[in-house]
Every structure is written in C-alpha cells, then in structure tokens.
Specification:
The structure is a single chain. The chain is 51% helix and 7% strand. By secondary structure, it is mostly helical. A hairpin with a 4-residue loop joins β3 and β4. α3 runs antiparallel to α4. The chain binds the ligand O=P(O)(O)O[C@@H]1[C@H](O)[C@H](OP(=O)(O)O)[C@@H](O)[C@H](O)[C@H]1O and zinc ion (2 copies). The site of one zinc ion has 8 residues, from α10.
Length: 223
C-alpha cells in the first residue's frame, strides 16, 4: 500500500525503537499539515491509531506528535481534535491504558489544552473533560511554565469613547484617539506617550500603552 511521506514520518516519530523523541520527523509532520500535504482529519486518524499501539513507547510518542501538531498547526487541527467525542475518547483512553506513563502524558495534555482554551468557549469540551476527570479523582501534574506560555492570552479588544479614559479630555480633530495595547482603552496622546513590550500577549516589540498600564507593568509582581 502506498505510504505517504506523512506515514513514513509518523512511523519514524512513533517507532518504539527510539530512545528519545524524533523531533525532525515531528516537525516534518507539522510542516506537512501546515502545507496541506495531509489533512488534519487524516493526520489525527493516523495518530489515534498509534495512540492505541500495544507498545507504550509508540503510544507515548504518538501523544508527543499530537501535542506538537496542536501547538504548531493552529485552528484547523484544533477544530479536528477538540470535538466532544474526541475529548471523551481522550478521557476513556487515559482511563483504559495499562501504561502509567501514557496515562500521565494524556492527563498532562488534557490540562494543558484546557488551560490553553480557558478563555475561548469554542472548545468547552476539553475543559469539561478536565473537570470530569478531576471530579473522578484524577490528579493532574504541575502545569509547566512552557505550556503556560503557549497559552498566551490574546490582547484585549479596543474600546471606543468620546473622552480620554484617563484624563477625560474630549477628543477633537487635533486631540486624537489612541489605544493602549495592554488594557485596550482609548486615550489622548499625552496619556499614552509610553511604549513597552507585552510578552504575556506574545508582543515582543515596544507598543503604545497608557500611563496606568505602563506603571503597573514596571512593577515586578504585575502579570
Ligand atoms: O490617528 P487616527 O487617524 O485617529 O487613527 C487612530 C490611530 O490609528 C490610533 O493608533 P495608535 O493607538 O497606535 O495611535 C488608534 O488607536 C485609534 O483608534 C485611531 O483612531
Ligand atoms: Zn488623557
Ligand atoms: Zn492601559
């Protein structure tokens, strides 16, 4: 039977002969999905098969592939993976696998994904899965910083208004509106004369922020 390059890469990435992850093959799989050489549907179906491999290494590596495509291939993969029935499948999978390391990895992924989509109601199913598993007494591992970063929030939408949110001066043709990228409020030029990066929103370059946010962001404790 014809083996696509995706099949070969998945075979390599989930081979039980591997002692450590085959990142080159995993990244090729992400590229193939992003380039549309393979559909998220077919990719996920093949990964699911590998998840159920009797060999714990293959099963665990398949979860690493799944984790990587969720991180690197965006919405098309999220829409394919985080359906209600797939989330229920993750739950029954981790409760039925005989391999403790596989169960731990699945728990870790459910938590990472529930956290990643905490502010989007589109993927309520994965959050429900975590709630149900918690209620059943499953203990989840510590959420890793790297995963928390992966779940960067999105910057707030911009508010509108007739006056500056800070000093209440009226906007005119010459006293124009500006927006703070941190709080999304509308301000006059004087109240948003400062700039800084907003790493929590994945913004590394200096962007316009209001005086209030600038002061808060300089304090070491502020998030
Ligand atoms: O200058 P204008 O043509 O009025 O346009 C304003 C600028 O684009 C502001 O960008 P900035 O926040 O980066 O200044 C933006 O925040 C305002 O909403 C816009 O009204
Ligand atoms: Zn102002
Ligand atoms: Zn602000």
């Amino acid at each position: 039977m014809f083996r696509s390059s995706f099949d070969k890469n998945l075979e390599n990435a989930t081979s039980h002969l591997r002692l450590e992850p085959d990142w080159p093959s995993i990244l090729l799989i992400c590229d193939e999905i992003n380039q549309k050489d393979v559909t998220p549907k077919n990719a996920f179906a093949a990964i699911k098969k590998k998840m159920n491999s009797p060999n714990p290494h293959s099963s665990c590596y398949s979860l690493l592939v799944l984790e990587s495509i969720v991180k690197n291939c965006g919405a098309p993969v999220h829409e394919e993976v985080f359906t209600k029935e797939n989330c229920e499948m993750f739950s029954s999978f981790l409760e039925s696998t005989p391999h403790e390391n596989v169960r731990q990895k699945m728990l870790e992924l459910v938590q990472t994904w529930a956290n990643a989509f905490r502010s989007s109601d589109k993927y309520q199913a994965i959050k429900d899965t975590m709630t149900i598993l918690k209620a059943k007494g499953h203990t989840f591992p510590e959420l890793r910083e790297a995963d928390a970063m992966f779940t960067a929030d999105t910057a707030p939408n911009w508010a509108d208004g007739r006056v500056c949110h800070r000093c209440r001066v009226e906007f005119t043709f010459t006293n124009r509106k500006h927006h703070c990228r941190n709080c999304g409020q509308v301000f006059c030029g004087q109240c948003t004369a400062k700039q800084c990066p907003l790493p929590k929103y994945g913004i590394e370059k200096d962007v316009r922020v209001c005086d209030g946010c600038f002061a808060a962001l300089q304090r070491p404790t502020s998030g």
